[in-house]
Each structure stands twice: as C-alpha cells, then as structure tokens.
Design a protein that fits this description.
The chain is built from seven helices and eleven strands. By secondary structure, the chain is an alpha+beta fold. It folds into two domains: 123 residues, N-terminal domain of MutM-like DNA repair proteins (Alpha-Beta Barrel); 120 residues, Helicase, Ruva Protein, domain 3. A five-stranded mixed β-sheet has the order 2-9-5-4-3. The chain has a four-stranded antiparallel β-sheet with strand order 1-7-8-6, covered by helices on one side. Strands 10-11 form a two-stranded antiparallel sheet. A hairpin with a 2-residue loop joins strand 3 and strand 4.
Length: 267
C-alpha cells in the first residue's frame, strides 16, 4: 500500500497535469469505487468542476475542485494515471474522469479496495486522522506525551492513523530501526530522549522517501527508488547496515515486521 512518501510523490506529479483542467464527465465503471455520495450524484456533481489544486493528507490524495474536494485512497492496488481520452479503457479501470484538453484521469484498481469521496467538507472523511508527521504540530514533546497517554505496543500504535497519519509498514520499520527502538516496546515506556530520537527518525525516513520518489513495490506503485536504501524492511536474514547482525522478521498485529535484534533490544 502506498504510504505518505508515495502519495506525496503522486500528488506532486499529478498537480501540473491537472490544475486548470475542467471535468467534462465521469465514467464510473465499478460503482462501489465511490464511497460518497451515491454514484448518480457523484456523476452529476463532478461534471463542470474546475481543478484548483492537488495535495495530500496522510495517505489520501486531495483534488480541490471549484465546489468540492475529490479524495482518493489507493489502498492495496490503486493507481492514478493520466491518459489521452482516445485510449480504450483497461480491464481494471474503475473510474475514468474525462478532462478538458482531451485528457482523462484514470483510477485503476486491480483488487477493488481503493475508494473515492466527493464532498464539500473533507473533514467528513479526514476528521479522525492524527497529526501529519511532517507538520509543525508534530513535535518530539507532543510525541512523548501522546505515547505515554497510551499503553500499546509501539509499532501497532504508529500504524494507527488516528494517532499519527501517513505512516505504514515500510516507514515504521525504517524509523524504529533508525531510532533503535524495538517494535514490541510499550509506548508508555519510551523516555523523552527516545521520543526525540523517534521523532527525528520519522522525519528522516519520510523526507528521504519523498526525496527518492517513494519506494517501488508490487506491480502498482512504480518510479521510486527508496527500496534500494531500506535498512531493515524486507531484508530478513540480511546483515543490519549498522552492526552486521542478521535482520529478523516477526508478525506484530498481523503485520510483517523487520528489525535488528542487536540495535533494537527489547528492554
């Protein structure tokens, strides 16, 4: 699933292609792709809207329109493409938004898990999300306090989008390794110094991921190169880049988790 750096990269690439275009029509080829409103209202409301901006909140793409916001969550296999309107639809195209200038914004989703919302009030969808980890509100002091307000294993808590928005499996594993924290450590055991290290690590891995256009994985997200610089994620039995110890893989909250048993000791 694309995480914050991948979604940020997609938003940056789409913005110059979309801003200023007018939406002519929407071909909804799988109705359940649209979570809000009804398919009929979606096609009615989106027609004639002008695209004003393209951005991101957590793992959601936000396309700001004249009177609405188009929110897109790619989930497991979603992909967004710009195509010439004359190109025939693909088998897995779920939504085709025809634009001025003979272009189309295509939402392709093999597994059908991705969702789209059209709403004048994006907080209807985004309101429960935690702070952005690259925002000014996300400070080491806030993180330390928030960790101590919970008593949960560290990795599942960091993956909780209501706690911090945008982190997923890859960047959580990478950040915990940089901060030298075990994924099973309890959140209320983290010291102020460790919280500061984790805060810096989250900033570091996300910014590096964005700088490298995210990580390419599966058959969906392509074009990034951060996968070539993973410290622990997906590197079971390979040597830790810090100490040379073999990286271990465990399941934490049913999620594949990679860590170094020497650098990230459970105390």
């Amino acid at each position: 699933m694309p995480e914050l750096p991948e979604v940020e990269t997609i938003a940056r690439k789409l913005k110059p292609e979309l801003v200023g275009k007018t939406i002519l029509s929407a071909d909804l080829r799988w109705p359940r792709t649209v979570a809000l409103p009804s398919p009929k209202k979606f096609k009615e409301w989106i027609k004639g809207q002008k695209i004003l901006d393209v951005g991101r909140r957590a793992k959601y793409l936000i396309i700001q329109l004249s009177n609405f916001n188009l929110l897109i969550h790619l989930r497991m296999s979603g992909d967004l493409l710009i195509r010439n309107s004359t190109i025939r639809a693909d088998l897995h195209d779920r939504l085709i938004i025809k634009l001025s200038g003979d272009k189309s914004l295509v939402f392709n989703d093999t597994r059908k898990f991705g969702r789209v919302w059209l709403t004048p009030q994006p907080e209807e969808v985004l309101g429960k999300l935690g702070p952005e980890p690259l925002s000014a509100n996300f400070t080491a002091q806030w993180l330390h306090t928030a960790l101590h307000n919970k008593r949960r294993q560290l990795k599942p808590l960091l993956l909780d989008q209501t706690f911090i928005a945008g982190l997923g499996n890859i960047y959580t594993d990478e950040a915990l390794h940089v901060a030298k924290l075990h994924p099973l450590a309890t959140s209320d055991s983290i010291t102020a110094r460790q919280a500061e290290a984790l805060h810096e690590a989250i900033h570091s891995v996300l910014n590096e991921g964005i700088r490298r256009n995210g990580a390419s994985f599966d058959w969906v997200y392509r074009g990034g190169e951060f996968q070539n610089y993973f410290r622990v994620y997906g590197r079971k039995d390979e040597e830790c880049p810090v100490c040379g110890t073999k990286i271990k893989r465990i399941l934490v909250g049913q999620r594949s988790t990679h860590y170094c048993p020497k650098c990230q000791k459970l105390r």
